Amino acid sequence: MCVFVMQVDSYICHMCGRGDGDEYMLLCDGCDDAFHTYCLIPPLQEVPKGDWRCPRCIQQVCGKPQGPYGFEQAKREYSLQSFGEMADQFKSNYFSMPVHMVSCEAVEKEFWRLVNCIEEDVCVQYGADIHAADMGSGFPTKDNKDMFPEDEEYINSGWNLNNLPVLEQSVLCHINADISGMKIPWCYVGMCFSSFCWHNEDHWSYSINYLHWGEPKTWYGVPGECADQFEDAMKANAPELFEHSPDLLHQLTTIMNPNILMDMGVPIVRTNQHAGEFIVTFPRAYHAGFNQGYNFAEAVNFCPADWLPIGRACIDHYRSLNRQCVFSHEELVCKMAADPDNLDLKVAACTHHDLLGIVEKEKQLRKKLLDRGTMEAEREAFELLPDDERQCDSCKTTCFLSGVTCPCSPNKLVCIHHVEMLCDCDPSRHCLRYRYTLDELPAMLYKLKVRAESFDNWTSKVGEALEAAGDDRLGELTLLKQVLSMKSVLFCNIDVVS
Hints:
The protein is of the alpha+beta class. Helix content is 34%, strand content 15%.
């Protein structure tokens, strides 16, 4: 009897189906499948060190995350002193030298090396998002029991981050709720390598960060007008993550080397923030960074008048992502419009312009609703409802000017942008819930316009006074003072000089 022995290759490449080239064969540590390095897309130039996962295993991991995005809560509680001792000990041991001898450049280089390295894990801790109202602010406040005479100046200062968000020139002062992180500062206790991932601020507001003391904080920033370019670059480099979570950048969990982004044409700036320095981020400006070592910072948001149209554009963006709002932009604008005489002049002018756009859009959408056959309407005081009861079922926007309901689903509400998502009933059964009639909105606009025009008249008179010469200038400035005195408008003293 003849016996034939067939030589069978021990491993077969799952890409080409061949078993030759053993020295280029890779075994996946997840599924044990084999692949030639040169068959992979893109091909690998050499056999990687450490564990390696095939494309299919990586896709499964990205497609089915084991848990929610975020950072683990530390099991141990620290005092400020014990955290500082731990932080300094970590940095000193890591770099094998006293903390004050480690350069910012050395920490920055090592930070990005660790981010790019898949073989090494380094665990650090970050005392982030500490509510100043609960745990105390780094700035003196009126609630401080132990105050020094020199604290009085800082308690009332506009640069005190407890005051800045609610100054007259910041529209956030018209929101009654104490929004933690936006109106109420958050404090941050950092250590070496603790980081804040790429993000921009809620409602695309401005932010300001003050480093009270400690080692520097390294920042990277992208101009707000390049936000779309930045987002496209991030999605191109991590498509699986964004496919699973389109709002990934809102979760503050994604860091990427600025060099990768700059190679794709994204403009990026960087700086080291030292103790006693402020950092201001502008609307929709993405930023990220890390701490050089043990430090203490405090941050809050603010929204001057020029933010209003940007904030409205942000709501449209949130609507496209089905992202919840922190507050209702329409409600904020209408609340300011209801009391125009108490608005800062520039705020009044910008509010008028923003409300004009809101009203025009509302008119168009209500007409479309009428054309669909929806005739029933009822007034609804949306501001009296909890936010979760006036949230659009489709896009999660917080409704204020209007919403639409149907008797078939009494607890379901959609915004006027998504009436087609309400139900399958005939539109004639639907009911428009409105805060103001279309006749009431122009009246609000007119009052704002009167207030806003006083700002335009003021700037015109100032321009005429400054452009005048000789005796004419003296007369214009004197007249200007008289007008302001009669109107009881706050005015910075001008010395009239002939």
